[in-house]
Amino acid sequence: MIARSKIGRTARGFATLLLAAAVTVSTSVSAFAQGVPVVRDAEIEALVRDYARPIFRAAGLANDGIDIVLVNDQSFNAFVTGRRLFINTGALVTAETPNEIIGVIAHEAGHIAGGHQQKLRDQLDRAKTMAIIATLLGAGAMVAGATTNSRGLAGAGMGVAAGGGEMAQRSILAYQRSEEITADRSAITYLNATGQSGMGMLKTFARFQSALSLSGTQLDPYRISHPMPQERIANLEVLVKASPYVNDVDPPALQQRHDMMRIKIAAYMQGQAAVARLMRKNPTSLASRYGDAQQTYLYGNPGAALTKTAALIKEQPKNPYFQELRGDILMKVNKPKDAADAYAKAVSLDPARSGLLLVSLGQALMAVGTPDSIKKAVTQLTNGIGRDKDNAEAYRYLAQATANWDKSRPPISRPPKGTSIRPTTRMRKSSPCGLNRS
Asked: What is the pTM of this model?
């Protein structure tokens, strides 16, 4: 929150920074999220929600409406703001097992359940008061020193002012470190409650420690907001190894979904070299063949991509995301009617009821362009928004579909000239644009 290079030398300067930090902490989620590069994908969102659901239940957050947001950032990071948990795609593609990401989610759930954001605001207020008091005391001493012509007293006053700011800064950082340790311990509690190992957390911290060692960076442990990786590992290792689930591994089906997620992120965000690296370990696995079909679609021949996707569908006919990929390829080769059929199949198979798949179906129906398909597009896009109210693109497509539908509807027939019209006794109000509200 507060960069070391920007810390002022006086308590007054630090008090200003603390006030700015407090304002930042209390900023609304929507305003904060405007600067976050968000990634939307039905498959990845469904998988991460499956990871989080039992953890949130164990943390008492199942009914709190926690949203999970994917961030297009290649660093390994996750954080919470308000009732939203942000996870970087870099964390998802780096983690080799579901358990590693589940450990991250459990840690962030510890922050939410512990009310750490509100407590940090309170701590910032106290630190700000501490810095201001130090400034006033120091200013008083400097005035007294000037009045009595005592350089020693004036110098002491400057030291009190600067020292107060330093003390407030260290107080906040120490508090944040204690929160991180508390969240780590809460995470182990949630993992034990859900019958899962904490080894993924240890592996994550070991990765951080290795990266820190390779970088050669020397950190002052009292000037950072998180405990050092080695310290975190030492604190958690005993708890993790004492768990009856320490040696449990992720179910094979969940591991397979994780592998497919990683290769999908690599294909769409990191390029062919990244896909090749992930495929190298097991080139014949379902995940590798999924990645091959995706990069063939993105960089190669759509016909070959369709053939590879058909093979995937044959192997897992109930996988909605293989149907989604087929729809994407068919849209690329300008076959919207066939694409709509594929997306409709994906919607029917989707257990997560993703609004994103409905929006894709609506787009394909718009591209078909007949009055009937446009009418259906309006319905599907409306239903998609009902499931996913934060999808800004869906509103834009709905506006376009509604406008096209109005143009495609036949004009109101008028009676022949000279015919008298008897007014009706009642008029029934229709909803705007005939939309069904879900």
From this structure: 0.74
